[in-house]
Amino acid sequence: MQKKVLLLPGDGIGQEVVAAATEVMQAAAQQSGCNLEISEALIGGSAIDATGEPLPSATLAAAEQVDAVLLGGVGGPKWDDLPTHLRPEKGLLGLRQRLGLFANLRPALLSAPLASASSLKAELVADLDILIIRELTGGIYFGEPRGVEVRDNERVGFNTLVYSEHEIERIARVGFELAAKRNGKLCSVDKANVLEVSQLWREKVTALAPEYPSVELSHMYVDNAAMQLVRAPKQFDVIVTGNMFGDILSDVAAMLTGSLGMLPSASLAASGTGLYEPVHGTAPDIAGQDLANPLATILSVGMMFRYSLDLPEAADRIDNAVAKVLEQGHRTADIAAAGVDSVGCQAMGKLVLEQLVN
Length: 358
Ligand code: NAD
Known about the structure:
The protein has twelve helices and twelve strands. By secondary structure, it is α/β, with parallel strands linked by helices. A ten-stranded mixed beta sheet has the order 2-1-3-12-11-4-5-10-8-9, sandwiched between helices. Strands 6-7 form a two-stranded antiparallel sheet. The site of nicotinamide-adenine-dinucleotide has 22 residues, from helix 1 and helix 4.
């Protein structure tokens, strides 16, 4: 089997975590008899430094020709004062748009040994395993009209929350399909008591349910969902929701797990290249010091094997290797309890690699 992966390490700790995760990726592919062709390109601040733009056309062209992209992160203080269209984040937004990545998958997983890192009581979050699916290319962040204009002698800001039927249907199907492969529970989150767009959302999602008899569908208003996520998060299996609600709820879910360094993500298109990246940013405060936690990126590689490379057994092996390393007590500084020894980014990558190949 032959697969192609493009590495976009980007800026700051992106370089370090992608390097550690790439070794794990190569080993897992080899174990599965998969011949991985790996290439690398520029994005974000490092692309600006080299070419003057955050998403060079060579990077876009390379991304369109692979099965999956592994991204580290973009941005940092060095590029903060550039005009908006030249900022590193534009590189990432442009890539998501060009690849048509409409489904953002953010698992919130908390292995029992790390339960004390959560801001919630350990018993509420130990062995947490929920998946938030956020619609990524529609909704209020992209709706027109938008802007700020003068009306009746004062400035008025406005945005438009819009979803068409086909946008709702395709993200809902991702929700049903993934719920069917997990524990069979799908919760669709909306604000149908107030918003017409949410009423359409609920109607369309409900209409699909008979096609997925193994999935139990429920609906929840977004304000209640935020409350339930911190009250009893383990009641959820898969949550599917729109762009803005998903943006907020996935950050709430992230905090349930206590550490940004542990959270992977995937963004999928209807077909073609998938994008895999840790949820965290480029952490300029610790960049270049071998302090970053590479586990979010390594777990993102696991998602890559599951969703883009069609090798779920390799994904399971990576997830298990990470779980074992944590069970053995190894920690990077961000997840280590006070006074406990920690390992660096490279050493953590090697520990996962050793666990994987042994
Ligand atoms: P951040 O996620 O980079 O860092 C927040 C805090 O968490 C920092 O204290 C950092 O040291 C720590 N942290 C993050 N990842 C870690 C890891 N793997 N291991 C250990 N500690 C980790 O968020 P920020 O500080 O708000 O942003 C820094 C830069 O990253 C900004 O330029 C921002 O625009 C960019 N950013 C990029 C992305 C992306 O590329 N997807 C996402 C978020 C932020």
